[in-house]
Amino acid sequence: MKDIIIIGSGPGGYETAIRGAQLGAKVTLIEKAELGGTCLNRGCIPTKVYFRNAEIIENIKHSSDFGINVESYSLDEEKMKKRKNEIVDKLVSGIDYLLKAHKIEFIQGTARLVGNNTVEVVTNTDIISIEGKNIIIATGSSPSSIPVEGADLPGIYTSKELLDFEKIPESLAIIGAGVIGSEFANIFQSFGSKVHLFLRSKYILKHEDIDVSKRLASYFKKRNIKIHNEIKYKKIVKENNKFTIYFEKKNKEKSVTVEKLLISAGRKPNIENIGLDTLGIEYTRKGISVNKQFKTNIDNIFAIGDVNGIKMLAHAAAHQGIEVVERIMGHEVVINQDLVPNSTFVFPEVSSVGKTEEEVKSENLDYNTNKFMFAANGKALALGEGDGFIKVIEADNKIVGVHILGPHASDLIHEAAIIINSNMGVKDVARTIHAHPTLSETFVEAVLGLHNEAIHQMPKRK
Ligand code: FAD
Asked: Ligand 1 in contact with 340 (CB < 6 A)?
């Protein structure tokens, strides 16, 4: 009997398998499609490869600001896709190597729970049964659609198909302005598409602090991304290989016709045909129900990552799984699952950790905020990336939220994560010398400004 059977080899499944093996568990990992799951094959990594293409294009477009004149450039779509596929393949084979090095049994096949300790796997050649003391479900999620006439028309893209685009579309409509929709909007706008971004709500990236969402919208507009917010969808029609989106805004009927349409309106957990009903495992349409320890209503069966719907991010999936195996193997668990950084790779990047101002307000906390602009940071100006700010929120003398809109936000956020996780306050940051000239100085100034002590910021009126 195995110690741990894991169904699904996304970041949740494979990282959990490796951690389990490190702690001495006998682990079997089962995958029905590609090793590495959504994140590696059609999510985090391919989008970031294309985001890098977009960054290079933006640098070329702005090169004359640096006194460098680039006469012209062109895009080689095949080479761009080839590079993306090579990076994915390299990472997938790296995981394959690590699984072997950790002596993890990997089975390619479709798994289904048939007993509290038994998983049945249909492979290309066989149906096999595996017994395990513990089972971890990490089957991930798939794109979901919207209840609008025409939303199921053939040729409408999900993120998966857009990543394998045949040619860069002249015009692209994106329904949904969450992380995935916003990232694709920026990537394809840089690639040369005319991008229309549709959202029912008022703000793009509505999970972020409103200050960030508002300012980001102004940058999207500057980049000629057309935002259609607060709309009601009427229908989608396909004619002459083009899509027309009919919608209502401020009681006016409107329509936009585009060459390609991406629906990125959220993701649904992969809970079908995995034996949940056979075993009586509880779930809702948001995902498998779990307690704080990611345990289902059956004592030795856990659900981690996108399939439990708690936080659909790769690092959340991995850390939920790591916590589960550490507990199974008798270790003390100290991961703070409530503190998960968010990052969105747009221009400029967005990253946040901890509470938003709206949250501290609704919790009636006595709080204080400060914002420091990248335009006052020497390194940001040298990079030609002075847009954006860092906003810090303090409550009860502790830093409780940090929201970054600016260059390298996704790297800068981790200092803030450690500070919040360690219950630190303004003095702790003030006592730590940060190198000059660095983007990190923006964070220090944003924090010092909470107490009116930032060196490069005008004093706030008392
Ligand atoms: P998945 O990665 O979805 O893996 C689940 C695996 O289970 C799949 O390989 C599936 O084939 C397998 N499986 C399902 N059913 C069975 C079965 N019955 N038997 C065997 N195997 C099965 N997150 C970030 O943190 N950062 C990003 O930048 C980011 N960018 C993204 C961009 C896009 C376009 C998308 C779509 C997602 C992005 N995400 C990002 C989200 C991230 O990909 C997911 O949160 C993450 O992959 C979840 O990991 P997981 O292990 O729970 O599931």
From this structure: no
